[in-house]
Specification:
The complex is a heterotrimer of chains A (393), B (629) and C (94). Chain A is of the alpha+beta class. Chain A is built from 13 helices and 14 strands. Chain A folds into four domains: 2-158, MutS, DNA mismatch repair protein, domain I; 164-220, 5' to 3' exonuclease, C-terminal subdomain (DNA polymerase, domain 1), CATH 1.10.150.20; 237-334, DNA polymerase, Y-family, little finger domain (Dna Ligase, domain 1, 2-Layer Sandwich); 345-390, no CATH class. Helix content of chain A is 35%, strand content 26%. In chain A, helix 1 (11-19) crosses helix 3, helix 9 crosses helix 10 (211-220) and helix 11 (250-265) packs antiparallel against helix 12. The longest helix of chain A has 18 residues, at 347-364. Chain B is globular and about 85 Å long. In chain B, strand 6 (157-162), helix 6 and strand 7 form a beta-alpha-beta unit. Chain B is an alpha/beta fold. In chain B, 43% of the residues lie in helices and 13% in strands. Chain B has 25 helices and 14 strands. Chain B has a seven-stranded mixed sheet with strand order 1-2-3-4-5-6-7. With 94 residues, chain C is mainly β. Chain C starts with 14 loop residues before the first strand and ends with a strand. Classes of the chains: A alpha+beta (393), B alpha/beta (629), C mainly beta (94). Chain A binds chain C through residues 1, 107-108, 227, 358-359, 361-363, 365-367, 370, 372-373, 380-383, 385-390, 392, and chain C through 1-4, 8-10, 13-20, 41, 43, 53, 55, 63, 73-75, 92-94. Strand 14 (386-390) of chain A pairs antiparallel with strand 1 (15-16) of chain C, so a sheet runs across the interface.
Chain lengths: 393, 629, 94
């Protein structure tokens, strides 16, 4: 399938400049915590030699004078959600690949956008120019991504039709979406470009890297069979609040969460339904961010059952610091689960059941309950194999 | 891309193939096929005819067979050369000799002994390999392939892929291709052809129903899934096998390696005769004739000597001494049977009381008269040798028909099998074919037409070609209105197509083929319906084309009566009559014939012959008159 | 309560299962489908398998179908067939 990749380079930094325009022109590093490690999420475009997910210490070793900002992930996600929403007005098949990266499926759009340029124009209009979007159009996600990544600065888009092999052959291996140690391994073997990888037979790569070896070769040849996973539009309910005072007390947090749940369950849209999954986040006083998701095996139909699960979660995963803001996003709603009982477990129940079936038939004038009977299960004509026979009590 | 079809069934795959050899070859030629292989089920009944038709149509023909292995699995064998053909005949013979009579089954362990000269294709979906693949039994499939590679070698074993658009073909072919790649074996694409054009699938469905003695409705599982088992255009094959183009090109490679020409490479040798020590077959025959001539004529007169010299000259020229001595041996066996049955006197010479009677042009041979082949003195009746033994060239083996009394014939056949061995003396096959009555009965049942009506129609129609069924129904008030009605019109159309189709291989009433070399190297042999009898898979025409020496042992009821009469005379009078020396001018006999008193007398009891009043008292003249009626 | 007369209401009410459903399809020159139009246009990525059945030619309504197992770009699979007697396309589980 032809796919359009939209890349918003340095998306998180651009999001920060929306609120704080003064950081433009200043070397800035945006950092986030994962466990006890501090890693680089994003940085200003003029800082060469940095990479996302690089340890902060390493980044600071290069740019000790840079401004440090704590990542506000909910904010960035909210902004990106809006952009994705705008893109979904152009095509129903939009995949949220990563923050600042999306794929759009072009199947069936030829009636709306007669050619590629009109499509690109429409897509670029959906993305604010502030984010300097780049677009790449190709057959498959990886080629589309590379086309976007290496789009010419004057046009900000690249369309790959013919000449894919020539385009790919000079690109570095580092662009491959594989584990870092595998990338290092490739370089150690003297394989630095996609062209070198494409020229190899699959055997040696598979022998060295296992199943990922085959993937490496296919991607180096511009072949990416990964399907597009479009966003599933589901009904979300979001509630959040700012605490009156910063707190570390679990009780206070729980009372706040209870309040949020009261608001959620009072909504008209939730009537008769329960919560299947929710996402809870907190934002701390030093912009410390904490988030977790909860799945419910059976929909939680009331506040009490939901709260008890959240309490367990908060106890198992303590807050990193004092909490200032709390938010809930209900991501899955569902109806009360039915219970399957056996129809024929008791003799008397069976008599009642058969009697009810007969009554139904008499009332409506024709058999209502059928059972599947094998007629000619070996037949080459499918509709001859089985038939529904009335369940005659 | 050119193509050779390597798996094709003709109507000699009884009640399975639905096209004649001519139809298949003509269509193959029209489609531009380089070659066509005939691979009927467990038989080579059509092989000789096939070889001749390929010559006349100028298309390469390959002889092969689809053999049934133990367990009911199928395997396709193709003969590359005369060695391969010999082995193919032996394998088919072995298949028929094991298991039940009409269910040949070859033990796969016999394959390696007869592997030389054969190319093996792994078989259709009913093959063992295909069934292992369908059952996802990969390890066993690999082991089976390794086994066949060991037996036949890498260059003579191919995995057979068929794409007849039957559900399961595609997945099976993919698995076979993967197996072929894994094991380094080549693939060959075949069409599993059962008819020459798509429309014939209807007749093929009927044949399957007939074979199972049921109707079309009841044989859904036995019938083929669709109408794709015909000779398809090469372009269509290119599309069907586009994932494995090498499977198509390999068919040509196989065809190029098959050089057998049955019209040229058949290794049949005239039967030889092991003459006594110090003698050659010619000298021994001369000795026998000299001794018999003295007994017959009193001495070797100049006339006898001149005739014998003439005949022996031709015998030497055409190397017929062994052939005639073999006949003599058969007559001697017949004499043994007569003596055992008490029908002859051991003191009598063979030629005085021969067990059988010669007939036709062979009675002009003096040698035959002297060694007991006939009871007619050719010198007395001045019979010309030219018709039986031409002096210039002999295009076919001379035909000697012998009539025996029924009682002698049955034992004689068994005795001949035992004397030479069933591999060297076999009965001629005969192939019964469909005519109108059989076609109506079998097709009517298959189509599910009312039994009573089918029965009535089959009794009403006259004997003849099934192509005339419509005309015959026109003449019948009961069936006239049905001609254009559904199913009945199918009956007419299918009967037309079925006319002349082989029904089954049977035993010729009396033909027997003798050979010094094992016959099973030349034509497959199978057990006959009667215990102890063995039948070859060729009929009279194929045997004549192959140049076999064939003896016809024909049973004649009249001879049985005459034998009985001679015995009664002997019992009552003590005298043994030599009926070759009776008075052929007895006027009392001619008066009786002239009076119309001929009931029960062979050849003269029919009405036109009885109406011949006052026949002249001359045997020769009377014979001439009777032969014109 | 409705009185049970004891008689059967609908003798012979065997209902068929897996009946074919009529659909619209686009096909190429060779008669193979390229897109299914019911309920919406879906382009076929590959035809994974095809098979044919010919049966009951002796009856009033012969069965002659060319089945195709198709794969769409979205990853969905479907079995459709072309009725070779009337040229219509149907979908049916096999």
């Amino acid at each position: 399938m032809r796919i359009l990749c939209i890349l918003l380079p340095h998306f998180s930094w651009h999001c920060e400049t929306l609120n704080n325009p003064e950081i433009q022109g200043c070397p800035t590093i945006i950092t986030y915590n994962t466990g006890s490690q501090k890693l680089v999420l994003d940085y200003s475009p003029d800082l060469a030699g940095l990479q996302p997910e690089m340890p902060l210490q390493q980044a600071l070793a290069r740019y000790g004078e840079a401004n440090l900002l704590q990542a506000d992930l909910p904010c960035y996600r909210a902004i990106f959600e809006e952009i994705l929403g705008a893109l979904e007005q152009r095509s129903p098949l939009v995949e949220n690949a990563d923050l600042g990266q999306a794929y759009i499926g072009l199947e069936g759009l030829q009636m709306i956008y007669p050619d590629d340029r009109s499509l690109l124009k429409a897509v670029q209009e959906a993305v604010p120019a502030h984010f300097s979007p780049r677009a790449g159009l190709a057959e498959g996600k990886f080629p589309a991504y590379l086309a976007a990544l290496y789009s010419p600065p004057e046009a900000n888009y690249r369309i790959l039709t013919d000449g894919l092999t020539d385009f790919l052959k000079g690109l570095p291996c580092d662009v491959l979406p594989i584990a870092g140690k595998n990338k290092a391994c490739l370089h150690e073997f003297g394989l630095h470009t996609l062209g070198q990888l494409a020229a190899l037979s699959p055997g040696p790569l598979q022998a060295q890297f296992g199943p990922e070896g085959r993937k490496i070769r296919d991607l180096a040849r511009g072949r990416d069979e990964t399907p597009l996973y479009p966003r599933f539009m589901e009904e979300n309910i979001e509630e959040s609040t700012v605490l009156s005072s910063v707190t570390v007390s679990l009780e206070a947090i729980l009372i706040t969460v209870e309040g949020l749940l009261t608001r959620v369950f009072s909504r008209e849209s939730l009537k008769g339904r329960g919560i299947r999954s929710l996402h809870i986040w907190t934002c701390g006083w030093g912009a410390q961010y904490w988030e977790h998701s909860l799945q419910f095996k059976e929909p939680a139909m009331d506040i009490r059952s939901t709260l008890s699960r959240i309490k367990l979660l908060l106890e198992d995963f303590p807050q990193p610091g004092p909490v200032e803001r709390i938010g809930l996003k209900i991501t899955g709603l569902g109806y009360r689960n039915g219970r399957q009982k056996s129809l024929f477990s008791e003799v008397r129940a069976q008599d009642h059941l058969l009697n009810d079936i007969k009554q139904l038939e008499l009332r409506l004038g024709s058999p209502q309950v059928y059972k599947i009977k094998e007629v000619e299960p070996w037949s080459r004509i499918p509709e001859r194999r089985y038939a529904l026979a009335p369940l005659n009590p | 891309m050119p193509y050779a079809e390597l798996h094709c069934h003709s109507y000699y795959s009884f009640h399975d193939g639905a096209s004649s050899l001519e139809e298949l070859l003509t269509q193959a030629k029209e489609l531009g096929y380089q070659a066509l292989a005939l691979t009927d089920h467990d038989n080579l009944c059509g092989a000789m005819r096939f070889a001749q038709v390929t010559h006349s149509l100028d298309i390469q023909g390959i002889i092969g067979a689809e053999v049934t292995l133990k367990g009911g699995y199928h395997l396709t064998l193709l003969a590359r050369d005369s060695t391969g053909y010999r082995n193919l005949c032996r394998l088919i013979t072995a298949a028929h000799n094991s298991g039940e009579r009409n269910n040949p089954e070859l033990d796969p362990c016999q394959l390696p002994e007869q592997a030389a000269g054969l190319i093996v294709l792994s078989g259709c979906p009913r093959s063992e390999l295909a069934q292992l693949i369908d059952g996802s039994r990969q390890a066993e499939a690999r082991a089976l392939v390794r086994q066949y590679l060991e037996w036949f070698g890498w260059e003579n074993y191919y995995l057979e892929v068929q794409q007849n658009l039957v559900h399961g073909d595609t997945s099976r072919n993919r698995a076979l291709a993967a197996l072929a790649q894994e094991m380094g074996v080549r693939m060959a694409a075949t069409g599993n052809v059962h008819y020459h054009i798509r429309e014939r699938h209807q007749l093929q469905d009927c044949l399957v129903a007939i074979r199972h003695c049921r109707n079309l409705e009841e044989t859904h599982r036995e019938r083929r899934a669709n109408s794709e088992f015909y000779l398809r255009p090469v372009k269509e094959l290119d599309t069907l096998f586009q994932e494995y183009p090498e499977a198509l090109t390999n068919t040509l490679a196989i065809a190029n390696r098959c050089t057998l020409d049955l019209t040229r490479d058949l290794c049949y040798i005239f039967p030889d005769y092991p003459a006594p020590e110090g003698e050659t077959p010619e000298s021994y025959l001369e000795k026998l004739c000299s001794e018999a001539a003295v007994r017959r004529y009193g001495a070797i007169t100049p006339e006898v000597s001149a005739r014998l010299e003439q005949e022996f000259g031709l015998v030497r020229k055409f190397k017929l001494a062994g052939f005639l001595l073999m006949y003599h041996e058969v007559i001697k066996l017949g004499r043994e049977v007569m003596l055992e049955q008490g029908l002859s006197d051991p003191s009598l010479a063979l030629e005085e009381n021969p067990p059988g009677r010669g007939r036709g042009s062979s009675v002009s041979l003096l040698i035959g008269y002297l060694i007991g082949l006939s009871h007619i003195d050719p010198l007395k009746y001045n019979l010309s040798l030219e018709r039986f033994l031409p002096s210039d060239t002999m295009s076919t083996v001379p035909d000697i028909d012998l009539d025996f009394p029924r009682s002698i014939r049955e034992d004689l056949i068994l005795r001949t099998h035992q004397r030479w061995g069933w591999e060297h003396a076999v009965l001629t096959g005969t192939i019964a074919t469909y005519m109108v009555k059989g076609a109506v009965r079998d097709l009517g049942k298959a189509l599910g037409l009312p039994e009573e009506e089918v029965d009535q129609l089959s009794r009403q129609v006259d004997w003849g070609s099934a192509k005339g069924l419509k005309d015959q129904m026109q003449k019948s008030p009961q069936f006239q209105s049905k001609i254009d009605t559904p199913v009945w019109r199918d009956l007419i159309r299918l009967a037309w197509e079925l006319d002349g189709f082989p029904k089954y291989l049977g035993q010729h009433p009396g033909g027997m083929v003798l050979s010094s070399t094992p016959l099973i190297d030349i034509v497959p042999v199978q057990r006959g319906a009667i215990d102890g009898r063995y039948v070859c898979q060729w009929d009279k025409d194929s045997i004549d084309d192959a140049g076999f020496v064939k003896i016809d042992f024909l049973a004649l009821g009249a001879l049985s009566q005459m034998q009985e009469a001679l015995e009664l005379i002997h019992r009552h009078t003590g005298k043994r009559i030599d009926i070759s020396r009776i008075n052929f001018e007895d006027t009392a006999v001619y008066d009786m014939l002239g009076g119309g008193d001929t009931i029960g007398i062979f050849q003269v009891e029919s009405a036109p012959r009885r109406s011949q009043r006052r026949p002249p008292p001359s045997f020769l003249v009377y014979t001439a008159i009777m032969s014109t009626l | 309560m409705v009185q049970n007369s004891g008689k059967t209401l609908c003798p012979g009410t065997l209902k068929p299962v897996n009946l074919p459903e009529l659909i619209k399809a686009e096909e190429d020159a060779s008669g193979l489908p390229t897109a299914i139009l019911t309920p919406r246009r879906q382009v076929i990525k590959t035809i994974e398998d095809r098979w044919r059945i010919d049966d009951e030619w002796w009856r009033r309504e012969p069965v002659s179908r060319l089945y195709c197992a198709v794969l769409f770009a979205s990853g969905q699979r479907l079995v459709v067939y072309k009725d070779l007697t009337d040229g219509e396309w149907y979908k049916q589980g096999y």
